[in-house]
Amino acid sequence: MGATEIVVILFLVTLGAVLVFALVSKKKIEDRRHDPAATKSTLAEDKSSTGKPADV
Q1: How many folded domains does the chain comprise?
Q2: Which residue ranges does the record annotate as region Disordered (predicted)?
């Protein structure tokens, strides 16, 4: 196995890992967005900007 094959395999594995991470993160964000009981971000229009941030 040459260097070219190793680079291609590493590229594909890395691309797959990033894709899975992105999809999992997107699902978590969408679930939180649709949850009415979730705490709001301080950037939301109807939340005080001086309050505690939601992700802390």
Answers
A1: 1
A2: 31-56
Residues 6+ apart with CB under 8 A from 41: 47, 53, 54, 55
Structure tokens of 37? Answer: 């009981």
In which residue are the tokens 């964000």 written? 29
Examine residue 55 and state whether it is found in any structural domain, yes or no: no
pLDDT tens for residues 5-46? 999 999 999 999 999 999 999 999 899 888 888 877 777 777
Is 48 within a domain? no
End-to-end, the C-alpha distance of the chain in Å comes to: 47
Q: Answer whether residue 25 is part of any domain.
A: yes
CA atoms within 13 A on the CB side of 48: 3
